[in-house]
Design goal:
mainly alpha, about 170 residues, elongated
């Protein structure tokens, strides 16, 4: 269809060459987009399968975690302290669940003791370990949040002390 037009006006050959190139590039882009979308969907499906497998592993690990708690509750008070957790070897927990920032059970205890009261009940221990394993949040983010909470509590305490000091100073000056 374009041959008679090119024979009539040879300048149209540039137009048809450019059109041919643009159409071929556009089709290649469409094919690439379909392939990339398929790869992303497969990756998301793999991640879902991996999450499902992790959940199943953790469900089977729950009795083991409860037994781990009981075995290491040295004083039998139903809570774990930092001293009791220090004796637990790292290989007692499933491999690959913590990154290189967690090097000891004391580090894990610091992550689990959200309230900072120095003790963990059996349910707190198991539930917080499971939630750590199932979260998509990096350990460093959890550590930063814990530090921020700690700083917030300390600043609040200092603020109350300053207010008390300010009241005492103002009452003594009057």
């Amino acid at each position: 269809i374009y041959t008679p037009l090119i024979l009539l006006k040879p300048a149209l050959s540039i137009y048809f060459v450019i059109l041919l190139l643009l159409v071929s590039v556009a089709l290649m882009n469409l094919v690439t987009a379909v392939l990339v979308e398929g790869a992303l969907e497969a990756g998301a499906a793999d991640k879902d399968v991996q999450k499902y497998d992790t959940r199943n592993r953790l469900k089977t690990a729950m009795p083991r975690l409860m037994q781990l708690f009981k075995d290491n509750d040295a004083d039998g008070d139903g809570t774990l302290s930092l001293e009791e957790v220090r004796n637990v070897p790292m290989n007692m927990l499933p491999e690959g669940l913590f990154d290189e920032s967690v090097q000891s059970m004391a580090d894990i205890y610091e992550l689990l003791d959200v309230s900072g009261d120095g003790s963990l009940s059996q349910m707190e221990f198991v539930e917080r370990l499971l939630s750590l394993f199932l979260q998509d949040v990096p350990i460093q983010t959890i550590q930063i949040l814990k530090l921020l909470r700690s700083n917030d509590m300390k600043i609040g305490s200092l603020n109350r002390k300053f207010e008390s000091l300010e009241r005492r100073l103002s009452s003594s000056l009057q």
